[in-house]
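Morning!

As promised:
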Amino acid sequence: MLRGKAFKFGDDISTDHIIPGRYAHLRSNLPELAKHVLEDADPSFASRVKTGDFIVAGNNFGLGSSREHAPLVIKLAGARAILAKSVARIFFRNAINLGLPILICDTDKIKDGDELEIDLAAGTVKDITNGSQLAFGKIPEVMLHILDEGGLIPYIKKYGDFKL
Amino acid sequence: MGKTLAEKILSQKSGSDARAGDIVIATVDLVFVQDTTGPLTVRQFQTSGFEKLANPAKTVLFIDHAAPSPNLELSADHILLRNFARQTGCQIHDVGEGICHQLVAESLAKPGDVIVGADSHTVTAGALGAFATGMGSSDVAVVFGLGKTWFRVPESIKIAASGNLQKGVFAKDLILYLIGKLGADGATYKALEFNGDTVGKMPVPERLTIANMAVEAGAKVGLFAADETTKKYLREQGRVNDYQTISPDADATYEQTMNIEANKLEPMVAKPHSVDNTAPVRELKGTKIQQVFIGTCTNGRLEDIAIAAKILREKKCHPETRLIVGPASKKVLMAAMKAGYIQTLIEAGAAILPPGCGPCLGLHQGVLGKGESCLSTANRNFKGRMGNPEAFIYLGSPATAAATAIAGEITDPREAM
């Protein structure tokens, strides 16, 4: 069970919003890079987010570049899951590969600052603030296995190969 | 039941009857990274416990995003990549050689290949009939070690374009029009398969422009059949033996078909701050532009530079508009020099960059100032993309870019041709 506060974002938050190219020189210095997470979408986010919080977004979250640094700095900043109405393909795979759950559900009713409780096993999101409950879409089995191991690298270390 | 291009290639490379929706493990023919995704890939590879590359000859590192390096941090990343190449025996293409996707098209991608790159514009090689797609560093690190990866076989959307493009209208205008129609997530998880007499007649450089931007509609791949045009291109690159014909079956199943009357298209732009925010160029007339950038993996090829040079010949850039031109590769730059295009562009006022990606992602070279607007031939115009969240980026064809550089405001290239 995960519990934390929702940070609400709109549609089409690109990897450039999450970690702009102008900080490319910090990609081998992740703690420093994480200070700029989502800077071009909400400049105050990095200073307000706390460990355990959630990113809640609209459609097409994470579109654009393949930079895995984008979900990596979201994780490093403390976020424990991303909830969105839809997610761009590469970002979805990258987040799961880093062991960061990314859940597809109708996020319209969740407001910025709402307290959420996520039950990954049951597939539900409870909005404690407004009392509503949502179900999120099924993650493909291969990705669930990767997520269970904490990401692709731990998965490969354990199995040495893909197990379908 | 017939197969789409995506199903055909993934069937062959997975040794199974791959159909849309299936999860398959496919062998990877070519895997690459660039200098902003490569260092993390190398670290993930080392953390995974791999001792060697599955296929060093088909593992390639490109130093193109920050080339030459603008600062000491990126210089350190470049050293890391060079050391990794020395240790593992993989290929490396260093500063000055060009943009990864252009070099992959010129010398590495083959029809029927599965190609994985740690860069979203890996889709570019779909123009040659390769199932080419972008992934993150962890996925690519595992491909480095295993030589294979898992794929969900995508559903395909057939894009059937018919008719001849009018004078002043190019492949870039066609793909901008299409992304405007599909939306920035209209093809998420899907394959775009380009078809019809318009693309059948289209030379490979223009197909590369279209395939390159498939990802801007969310697509996993943007595929073209490999035909006589592909063969001609590969022959020009000195590798006709890499050719094989590959085409979809006539009875393949498509999720949907979109018809485009290409003869009715006009020059298009994408307005700030999303690629699907498209409009005909004429509607933007009068929009002041401080910087014009011609280059990138989308439109930095010889044909693009030739169009720009033709329009700018014996003309001058507007006094309040600077023009930056970045050829996509060393080969492109040398051919453009030989043809006199570079001389023409410099005489018109252009600043020429070494082959690379820099300005497109705001990493260095041509970072925009506060409140400035740029007309770029690149593929993305997200807020902050060219280094400044308080700047504005319009995307268009090289012809639109050249006409705009002369007028100092967004201009329909048909007025300048």
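Chain B has two domains: 5-14+23-261, 269-415.

Hope this helps with the figure draft.
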